[in-house]
User: Which sequence fits this backbone?
């Protein structure tokens, strides 16, 4: 006797098969290109990698081909995650692991990537289908489940620690593109436990701000040390969802966040430029705050505190501090464009740039608010006086 869950799974499989059949009949199934075994920098129109390999010739990246040796896990294949996965696929990443339990809906069509004919398909399956057509050189592994349930979480842990390109090796980087607190906490827990580097991303519920954050367990603040977007107390998220009320989303904001996320992934993996520890985006003001966040020694997460101890021990074992200073100088000298490695945005400045918090469900706040408009006339105001203009001028001359 099959359980309800098994039957639901079977129904889903059959639905997906039906969609695939329909795609075939409508001619949506295009022939895929042949696999390319070696990335070439040959400048011919038929080479999908010529523009990427040109980064070497331009002196930006030393060894672009190395991208094929990396594995990235994308958790959440929604507005940000799907675009992120597409960018990585087009860049020729070695392997992608996709995690999501959602289905494609017509309500997703205001965003990039998914298409109306994919409605009803699981997001990971629809994504794999599209991405494989774009670049068959990439290896895909998809998981159509919610990582926050106990069994799935254990499987998720197993796959991120053994699902690398070379089976048995860990993935190189995990990208959190989820839209809820619970899933972020699950990723944070897994990464703190494994010492796995990850990047968190998010877009606010009002669709006009977002952020990315690099989390190196023990070295930079983890999600529990300082959650950047959803500053929620330990309350049940289901209570936050109100019937008929949904979060706003824009393809623009999601595209920008996916863009700055993948840009930093490329910089991190291919070792060029400076990887941002935290980069925010406020669309209302085109404000991009940047900062570096140290871990909180009193973080709630015990594995985070353990990773901090380990990091400090490793740092103490480093030969000498002077070496670090020399390295810092070199970075500064090469900084032709005057871009700061770590922005000096102080807490006061951040506070000043924020305004009133919009009306959101209890337990949620936005990462950025609209800075209070400074009235330009305000600064020019003078104290009222009974003196005439002539008298004022005369007084000024005396001064
Ligand atoms: Zn922490």
Assistant:
């Amino acid at each position: 006797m099959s359980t309800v869950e098994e039957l639901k799974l079977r129904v889903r499989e059959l639905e997906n098969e039906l969609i695939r059949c329909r795609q075939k009949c409508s001619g949506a199934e295009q022939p895929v290109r042949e696999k390319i075994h070696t990335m070439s920098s040959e400048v011919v129109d038929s080479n999908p990698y010529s523009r990427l390999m040109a980064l070497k010739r331009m002196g930006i990246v030393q060894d672009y081909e190395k991208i094929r040796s990396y594995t990235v896990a994308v958790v959440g294949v929604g507005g940000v995650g799907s675009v992120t996965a597409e960018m990585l696929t087009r860049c020729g990443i070695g392997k992608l692991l996709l995690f999501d339990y959602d289905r494609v809906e017509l309500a997703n069509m205001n965003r990039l990537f998914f298409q109306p004919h994919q409605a009803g398909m699981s997001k990971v399956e629809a994504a794999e289908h599209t991405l494989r057509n774009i670049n068959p050189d990439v290896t895909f592994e998809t998981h159509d489940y919610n990582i926050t349930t106990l069994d799935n979480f254990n499987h998720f842990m197993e796959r991120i620690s053994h699902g690398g390109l070379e089976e048995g090796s860990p993935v190189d980087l995990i990208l959190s593109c989820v839209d809820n607190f619970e899933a972020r906490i699950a990723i944070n827990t897994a990464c703190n436990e494994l010492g796995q580097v990850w990047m968190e991303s998010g877009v606010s519920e009002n669709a006009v701000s977002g952020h990315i954050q690099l989390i190196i367990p023990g070295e930079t603040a983890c999600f529990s040390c300082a959650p950047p977007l959803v500053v929620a107390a330990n309350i049940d998220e289901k209570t936050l969802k109100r019937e008929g009320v949904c979060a706003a989303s824009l393809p623009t904001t999601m595209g920008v966040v996916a863009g700055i996320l993948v840009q930093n992934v490329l910089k991190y993996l291919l070792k060029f430029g400076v990887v941002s520890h935290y980069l925010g985006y406020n669309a209302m003001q085109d404000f991009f705050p940047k900062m570096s966040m140290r871990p909180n020694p009193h973080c709630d997460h015990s594995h985070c505190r353990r990773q901090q101890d380990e990091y400090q021990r490793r740092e103490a074992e480093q030969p000498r501090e002077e070496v670090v200073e020399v390295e810092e100088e070199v970075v500064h000298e090469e900084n032709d464009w005057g871009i700061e490695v770590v922005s000096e945005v102080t807490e006061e400045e951040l506070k000043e740039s924020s305004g009133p918090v919009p009306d959101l469900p209890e337990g949620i706040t936005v990462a950025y608010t609209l800075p209070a408009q400074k009235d330009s006339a305000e600064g020019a105001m003078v104290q009222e006086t009974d003196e005439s203009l002539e008298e004022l001028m005369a007084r000024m001359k005396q001064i």
User: Anything to note?
Assistant: The mean pLDDT is 81. The CA atoms of residues 41 and 50 lie 5 Å apart.
